[in-house]
Amino acid sequence: MGAVLTDLPKPDCPLRTEEIAVVARVPLFSGLPPESLPAILAEAKVVRHPRGRTLFRQGDEARALYVLLEGQVGLTGSVKGSETVVEILDAGEAFIIAAVLTGKPFLMGATALTQCRVLELPREPLLDAIMGSPCLALSMLTSLARHFRMLVREVKALKLQTASQRLAAYLLGLTPKRRGSAILKLPHNKGVIARRVGVRAETLSRVFATLRDQGVVIDGNTVAIVDVARLSRFCHEGDDVV
Amino acid sequence: MGAVLTDLPKPDCPLRTEEIAVVARVPLFSGLPPESLPAILAEAKVVRHPRGRTLFRQGDEARALYVLLEGQVGLTGSVKGSETVVEILDAGEAFIIAAVLTGKPFLMGATALTQCRVLELPREPLLDAIMGSPCLALSMLTSLARHFRMLVREVKALKLQTASQRLAAYLLGLTPKRRGSAILKLPHNKGVIARRVGVRAETLSRVFATLRDQGVVIDGNTVAIVDVARLSRFCHEGDDVV
DNA sequence: CCGTCGGATTGACGGTGGTCAAACCCGGCC
DNA sequence: GGCCGGGTTTGACCACCGTCAATCCGACGG
Asked: pTM, whole model, 2 decimals?
């Protein structure tokens, strides 16, 4: 495969050498022997998407694995009418591994939340690569396992916690701090966050208000958490315990 | 209770050849070359559990992969106090793949819903086997992917559907039929089903009552669905459409 | 036969969060 | 400036579901 087509004006383009270097730092590929990368990426392409673009829709056939190189993507699920955000991805994450492997239609659609750059690995060569490289297989297993555990947390939260607790958990996920106070910027508009947390935008607004009792102060898209440890206690304890 | 002492003197025992034959038919291993099985299973053991036994608890360290050979197991998640059923497994399923791979503590506990037989594959040899057998790796990826997609469905259902729609979906999952009518037996007691669907037992009772309008008749643990296609429409359409 | 126990149902009540509507805020644009 | 549009907030209302309690039912053991 000739990898030296220098410039391409189109949104779709084959990988250039500098892009391969970027891809090599993605967790999914970082454990691989460097010389095996070009083979895996031979049929891959990089696509740029503007903010708001739909990458694919729920129900479409999964023909490629996607790796987010830059920007943010939201995975949304819809049931006749209303829509929710199942997961929000940051740069470096691979997504819809499960759909590609099972060869079944997407259960979620994907929307660019910011301008972004996405690597697309067609299904067939990917499966070949997995069969040929135990290391890649383990990488994919690990990546899928991490997302799986996020979903398990999500299911538990949806079944057992209130909206305020889920929002608190979401906020805590935005800061690495485990105690003390924290100030952070919301990474998306509130409508997206609401669907992510599993409530309507109106409810999110009210829930933010009630979280003031837990030491959460909001102004625009800036949030101040007075005591991270206390907020953490709030979302793990039963509602009765303040 | 103690009538089976003759089969197995101890709850734990190494695999016998006839058991290897059973394991070979489990989907996770069925694609493997038969001669590779004994190596993988060298350090595995089979454990019997009585109904109600806790196999492991949420928070425990994941030291082995579990494969359900016979019986039913419920995976439960708890958040300070209340508990929910995240997944119910039937014979042939592997479980907690994700926890074993990431090496992190279980996010869920496991309880035997019936008497059951479980294969336990210790973590280290399993990882070795994966690295050595691309075929096994792909099997595990496929298995994990299938469970992943079940969880995605679950998250979407919890966020976007009412309790009646989730119960309807659960009932539809119990029959292979896509149209016509169906009669089925509930495979668990109603408390377990309630936690599976994500409601209290009291609510489940009432929801069953409301589903009569959708052609669902319940008597004890027997359920009759007058029109499967109609019920299917009910849980995919918006609530307004009767 | 009766008492007990666990599961299931029914009733009454209240809280959480969805719905609909109006108001509000703020940046872009004519 | 005034106008517009999207995102956000607020208010009023109520459906859905959780909670607590009483009751019912079948299985089991006395």
From this structure: 0.90
